[in-house]
Amino acid sequence: MTPRYSVVIPTTGRPSLVTLLSCVDSGEGPAPLEIIVVDDRRSGPPLRLPPLSVPVRVLLSGGRGPAAARNAGWRAARGEWIAFLDDDVRTPPDWPARLAADLDGLPGRVGGSQGRIVVPPPPGGRRPSDDERGTAGLAAACWITADMAYRRAALVAVGGFDERFPRAYREDADLALRVRMAGMELVRGARISVHPARRSGFFASVRAQRGNADDALLRRKFGNAWRQLTEAGPGRLPWHAVSTASGLAALGLALRGRGRAAVGAGAVWLALTAEFALRRILPGPRTAEEIARMAVTSALIPPAACWARAKGEFAARRPPSGPDAVLFDRDDTLIVDEPYLSDPKLVRPMPGAERGLRRLRAARVPIGVVSNQSGVARGLITERQLAEVNARVDELLGPFGTWQVCLHGEADGCACRKPRPGLIERAARALGADPRRCVVIGDIGADVEAALAAGAKAILVPTARTRQEEIERAPYLARDLDEAAGLALGERAW
């Protein structure tokens, strides 16, 4: 039987996305149910996508990184299988057919299937640069989401990607390890994706050392054997630590006037730096530009790596805390929905609302309201009537730290109307909160999408009007506001 699959592509708007979409859309074999593009930019104009025969949806994830973007994508997807692709790969024409063949008939114990990544060699047969060698390493990497399909049930079982990984680094290895620890197998398929070599700036290899913070999180989660468990290489951090220590020692000894000892420590630093630079120069093209780049960055990488690892170790040990703020939708969340409500006398609290709000206030968590009120734009209610209704809500359930209301209609193209993130971002600013540390509680998919677009967590409290597909795609569910408040406070595990 042909597997039902969705394609999820996180993007930061790179031009290569259009090429990839065209490749998938024109491929031979069973087409995906849908392509979900998750725009992970913090701001910018809407993505301009080519017309496709496959249904395409664009979601927003608020610039929280590929782990969060992929979570937003797969949770909204309808397929039994979720095929993740990076926006800078290219799929050959037979990719859909090969993917279907890879997935068809896999036993239930198999949670994921990895595609094979091919990196084109440098043109003209020249030796690869440092950037090109880094990209070429993807061909041998395990379980990378440049082309990785997971069974939806496997993602549900382990909770998806860990969003504490903010970069395109280690989040895929972490997920694969948790899937395998949950008793599911990962297999390699026969399909192929092409990953062109990346071109980076002069100091890109130094900036890449931020990934050492993610190594610290893996070590915290899985112990010192994390490299073996995730099939990562041995790493060079111990040598970077010696190099950094000797360089600092040389500087400190020189400042104290201990010249001979400073020379000895400096010699150690110079030898380690030279060895590291040569290790990077010799396999490369050995042009003057490449040699200069390797020499400079080989001196900067060790302290950058050690600093990032130290920050990561500290962050991994930091105990979790409650949210900065909890933001509520109004209609059918705080109060019973009366379409275009203009009479304060009709305001009725939803079940559990008073208990949930009391719980949050006892925990001293700031709370606010974020509400679409397009009735004003449509002329069905006046701003004065809206203010009177909101005042009645405040009287019955308040006070609230902020009210953020969108008065626009659907066609106005504003940035505030949910599912856009504007209301959540404005409410967070008003409460002095980080949107990424806020929780949004609502009753429909637009509330969830707005929260995810702003980087916040989202809890759906369904009502009779909530669509089934919105319930299925919600990251977290609660029966009423009292239960949602407990979840927001961490009284239940996220």
TrEMBL record:
The keyword Iron does not apply. Residues 111-133 are annotated as: Disordered. The keyword Disulfide bond does not apply. GO terms for molecular function: metal ion binding; phosphatase activity. GO terms for biological process: carbohydrate metabolic process. It comes from the Bacteria. InterPro entries: Glyco_trans_2-like, HAD-like_sf, HAD-SF_hydro_IIIA, HAD_sf, Heptose_bisP_phosphatase, Histidinol-phos, Nucleotide-diphossugar_trans. One of its GO terms (cellular component) is cytoplasm. Residues 6-104 form the Glycosyltransferase 2-like domain. Gene3D superfamilies: HAD superfamily/HAD-like, Spore Coat Polysaccharide Biosynthesis Protein SpsA, Chain A. Keywords: Carbohydrate metabolism, Cytoplasm, Hydrolase, Metal-binding. It is found in: Cytoplasm. Belongs to the GmhB family. This is D,D-heptose 1,7-bisphosphate phosphatase. It comes from Amycolatopsis rhizosphaerae.
